[in-house]
Specification:
The complex is a heterotrimer of chains A (125), B (101) and C (116).
Chain A lengths: L1 H5 L2 E6 L8 H13 L4 E6 L22 H10 L4 E5 H6 L12 E3 L1 H10 L2 E4 L1
Chain B lengths: L2 E5 L8 H8 L5 E4 L14 H7 L4 E5 H6 L12 E3 L1 H9 L3 E4 L1
Chain C lengths: L1 E6 L8 H14 L3 E7 L20 H10 L4 E4 H6 L11 E4 L2 H9 L2 E4 L1
Parallel strand pairs in C: 1-2, 1-5, 2-3, 3-4
Classes of the chains: A alpha/beta (125), B alpha/beta (101), C alpha/beta (116).
């Protein structure tokens, strides 16, 4: 418990779609680095950010690395145990939970707001 | 403690304002900076949204940014209060955290 | 109060650097401490030592030097920097190249972290 208390709560707030900008690629690098330091790291996908978790991405034709696979690694090998996706953002974009490449916590906006509230720092990307 | 929401993109071009409005809580603060200040312009299509949220949140704008863009104080919705950079710093200091949308 | 600053946007596409610069100067004048500015994404271009703006243009390099002279640590992300040609050899004297751990440290050590 003591240990839990001393960890800084930091959330990456991913609100940008993948590929069209560099943000997703570089935020993933930050996530990997942060997660190796035993802090309390959360990642939330809202708005167009939910497209980053779409199943079946194949960016080989545009010569870009498939970043989506990295999320699987983050969940399996690193301490990022809390990946949140906002339900309303999925709905607005015609996406369902089954469309996502991995099992993540789908949260209602109100619940995500409470999570954001608990954070010390929110890093928007 | 209140959270500071910084809007620096034009609402006509990005979803910064609309994202912020979805997450803002009663008692929070909004600061419009850079192109974000156009959200608070009177007669614009976002005036209503900003007026509505001002019922439960305080609204500020970064005066050097409106001045730079030729937007005079009487063209900004009257509920919004001007701050300079020191006022911006004070808003950050008085909030538990800030999110730049 | 201790402030940490994250700048993400390119100084030659956006106003973010300028707003951060004015914010930092105001914070210091008010007696706050800026424990560091971390340059990420395209913001790393602000740390290029070969910047040579035309006469009369805003001069990012001199703003960086000014921040440094006020005692502010300017940290350019090594990964984002390398990708964009910023290395130990090309980074300006007022900035340093370091890892994302510095951003984590700013997040932990600052009382407030502000993103520009």
């Amino acid at each position: 418990m003591e240990d839990q208390k001393s960890k800084a709560k930091i959330m990456f707030l991913c609100k940008t779609a993948p590929y069209g900008t560099i943000y997703e690629q570089e935020v993933i690098e930050a996530m990997i680095m942060f997660s190796s330091y035993e802090q309390d790291i959360r990642v939330a996908f809202i708005g167009d950010g939910v497209f980053s978790l779409k199943k079946g991405q194949n960016p080989s034709l545009i010569n870009i690395k498939n970043f989506a696979q990295t999320y699987l690694v983050l969940i399996d090998d690193f301490e990022v145990s809390h990946l949140y996706v906002e339900k309303e953002s999925l709905d607005e974009r015609g996406m369902k939970e089954e469309d996502l490449l991995t099992e993540v916590e789908v949260l209602q906006r109100a619940d995500l707001i409470s999570k954001i509230d608990e954070m010390k720092v929110v890093l928007p990307f | 403690m209140q959270m500071l929401n910084i809007i620096k993109k034009s609402p006509y071009e990005t979803s910064s304002l609309s994202n912020c409005l979805k997450y803002i809580k009663t008692g929070d603060v909004i600061l419009f900076t850079e192109d974000g200040i156009y959200a608070a312009k009177k007669g614009g299509m976002f005036e209503k949204f900003v007026s509505d949220v001002s019922q439960t949140c305080s609204i500020y704008y970064l005066f050097p940014d409106t001045e730079a863009r030729g937007i005079k104080s009487d063209e900004i919705i009257s509920i919004a209060k001007p701050v300079d950079y020191q006022g911006f710093v004070a808003l950050v200091a008085n909030s538990s955290k800030s999110i730049t949308w | 109060m201790k402030f940490g600053i994250l700048i993400k946007e390119s100084p030659y596409n956006f106003q973010a650097f300028d707003t951060a610069y004015n914010f930092v100067k105001a914070a210091i004048e008010m007696g706050h401490e800026i424990i560091g500015i971390f340059f990420y994404d395209d913001a790393v271009y602000a740390g290029n030592k070969y910047l040579e703006p035309p006469q009369g243009d805003r001069n990012i390099k001199s703003y960086m030097d000014d921040l440094k002279s006020r005692g502010v640590r300017l940290v350019v992300c090594v990964a984002a920097g390398k990708r964009r040609g910023l290395t130990q050899d090309t980074v300006s004297e007022s900035a340093e190249i370091s890892g994302l751990g510095q951003l984590l440290e700013l997040s932990i050590e600052s009382d407030r972290l502000v993103t520009f």
